[in-house]
Amino acid sequence: MTLRTPYLMFIGDAPDQLAAKTADGVAFWRPEACLGQLRLPGCNADLRLPDMTIEEASAAGVKTVIVGTTNRGGVLGEGWEPLLVKALELGMDLASGLHHRLADIPVLRDTASRCGRQIADVRHPTREFHVGSGVKRPGKRLLTVGTDCSIGKMFTALAIEKEMRGRGIKADFRATGQTGILIAGDGVSIDAVVSDFVSGAVEWLCPANDPDHWDVIEGQGSLFHASYAGVTLGLIHGAQPDALVMCHEPTRAHMRGLPGYKLPDLKLCIERNVEAAQLTNPAVRCVGLSINTSGLDAGAARDYLRQTEDRLGLPCIDPVRSGVGAIVDKLAV
Amino acid sequence: MTLRTPYLMFIGDAPDQLAAKTADGVAFWRPEACLGQLRLPGCNADLRLPDMTIEEASAAGVKTVIVGTTNRGGVLGEGWEPLLVKALELGMDLASGLHHRLADIPVLRDTASRCGRQIADVRHPTREFHVGSGVKRPGKRLLTVGTDCSIGKMFTALAIEKEMRGRGIKADFRATGQTGILIAGDGVSIDAVVSDFVSGAVEWLCPANDPDHWDVIEGQGSLFHASYAGVTLGLIHGAQPDALVMCHEPTRAHMRGLPGYKLPDLKLCIERNVEAAQLTNPAVRCVGLSINTSGLDAGAARDYLRQTEDRLGLPCIDPVRSGVGAIVDKLAV
Questions:
Q1: How many CB atoms within 10 Å of residue B92?
Q2: Which residue, A135, A149, A180, A239, could crosslink A143 as a Cys pair with Cβ 3.0–4.6 Å?
Q3: A250 reaches B (C-beta below 8 A)
Q4: Do B200 and A226 touch (CB under 8 A)?
């Protein structure tokens, strides 16, 4: 599965910007690939892209319509289906990050088949994977890990890929979640893989490469998240990371979706992630922390970053406020 | 899915006893449920059960034919299909621990449907699970963990269930793999669950119970196995164990299937498992070690158990040679 660009971002009747966060992520990281947005009545999200109809998108050269929002109930919102059928008939592919497969909707499946078009339900792996081999492979790998879910692991990995490429370092972002896959145009939604094959799927995702090439792998979940830690551990072992970047959000009151669970201590969390990663790469080290300080004012953010850096002895950055340069510096050492 | 007893054990043309190990396990732990075995020409395994034809099994009151061997290639061995069709036609169900689903074989699926019979492909979960909630639930739970795969976790759990029941303690074995499911008649093949739902599936498998009831949960994999550690961690978190029993085989040269990986130090392995389990049950403790000493002579086995017990300060037994009484004693403390 490789998505054809450029894209039209379909955000339906997203009630707010958060409901369109998948589309938002794609528009932020792939502005050159996003020609326009399609919004329906009631949509309160705005990607700041030109509004287009399906017909205008086709005329503009769009190759794939991305369903980049969740709907308010059911598989598709009202009136979405005819628009998506039209897109297929005009020669465009569909890609979706929804839980429910577009390809399970008979009219979409049949139309795609009739028109020779592709439907990419990126949450659902389309191939089989082997069990992880644990065999070391050439190339360097960086994995973002976190104290919790939804804490900046994808954003940080993309920012590091961009910084590396800007410095002429060979680097590829490797996507493990639906938004990341829509951004990269490829990847594996790792939490949808049968548990036996998680580390094998990650080995497939970031295969042997040049000795000076970096795979920058999007982390998932957290070793301290009671629902998803197994996914995280399989991802760590399959990635065989040389470098870990710990992501954190300092104002979060409890683990996402688990009111009874506090966030782990940062130092302990780093230790446990390094210990886990040592199984498949004894040389692994944590090279820095990426902090989402959006909940703090500028002064508090600066203080937090400086104090955490002093306490842990590692570069501590906010990828939005300060960029990830200090972490990439550390990789050259 | 609950399997109807009694069983006929179908072991086809198993070339040796190891190829029939699933059937062997069921015959060992459920002798009262196993009325007979069906062997084909070339079979070198023997469950020491009366040999029966499909017709004799039906006449004897068998309710389920268990496919308890792997075949030498392909989905089913030569000549198996007509026998299994006959079993369905005579009113018996089928259950299988094979990777490939019997229910995917058209003639078996159609015959079962026509005759109103059940095909249980126990490696494949038949229901959907929720994401793990991490919410503590009443009842006590013991989980067997291990330094490696295939090291005695199922056997130890079954032995502990038997010992507990013999002492009048309320206890239920909870199966997480295909042989365990065929023995218990129910369970979840946890390594076949989509990774996002592993801990939730385990929460479902050992739900809230009486405060003095023990679920004795079959472990899978190992936190130190590069292929499967994620499965193990999700299982640990979903189980919320009060007690862990560490299983080990002292003569194994390397991790199963991973020639480059040594077995972990026992003390470190216990520490890491306890640390992992503390996330969802801070009161967890390791209550003993279950050692498979079949590779040692009687004297060496005795020495190993005594030395390990002295070194780690925990009961250290071989479930076959010495029974699990010393571990169950520890649970009462």
A1: 24
A2: A239
A3: no
A4: no
Q: Where are the beta strands (DSSP E) in B209-331?
A: 214-217, 243-248, 285-291, 316-317
Q: CB B280 to CB A226 under 8 A? A: yes
B115 touches chain A (CB under 8 A): no
Q: How far apart are CA A10 and CA A313, in angstroms?
A: 44
Angle at B142 between CA B139 and CA B143, to 5 degrees: 135
Q: How do residues B275-299 score in pLDDT, each as one tens digit?
A: 999 999 999 999 999 999 999 999 9
Q: What percent of chain B has pLDDT over 90?
A: 92
pTM attached to this predicted model: 0.95
Q: Which of residues 256-275 of B touch A (CB under 8 A)?
A: 257-258, 260-261, 272, 275
The whole-number mean pLDDT for each consecutive block of 10 residues of chain B, a chain of 333 residues, reads 93 91 95 97 95 98 93 75 97 93 96 97 92 97 97 98 97 97 96 96 98 98 98 98 98 95 98 98 98 97 98 98 96 74
Nearest to A237 among B131, B132, B226 (CB): B226
Nearest to B226 among A132, A229, A261 (CB): A132
Q: Is B191 on the interface with A (CB under 8 A)?
A: yes
Question: B128-186, pLDDT tens digit by residue?
Answer: 999 999 999 999 999 999 999 999 999 999 999 999 999 999 999 999 999 999 999 99
Spatial distance between the Cα atoms of A39 and A50, rounded to a whole number of angstroms:
10
Of A133, A194, A230, the CB nearest to B233: A230
**Beta strands per DSSP E along A47-92:** 64-67
What chain B residue is nearest to A275 in terms of C-alpha separation? Answer: B272
Q: Helix, strand, coil proportions of chain A in percent (round to 5)?
A: 40, 15, 45
Residue type for A185, please? Answer: G
Phi, psi at B294, each rounded to 5°: -60, -20
The per-residue b/e assignment along A273-298, b for 16 or more CB within 10 angstroms, e otherwise, is bbebbebbbeebebbbbbbbbeebee
Q: How many helices and strands in chain B, by DSSP H and E?
A: 11, 11
Cis bond leading into A6, ω under 30°?
A: yes
> Which residue carries 């190891």 as its tokens?
B18
CA distances from A124 to A101, A190, A312, B125 (A): 8, 9, 39, 18
> Is the CB of B149 inside 8 Å of chain A's CB atoms?
no
Give the one of A135, A233, A260 whose C-beta lies nearest to B134's C-beta: A260
The dihedrals phi and psi of B331, each to the nearest 5 degrees, come to -70, -25
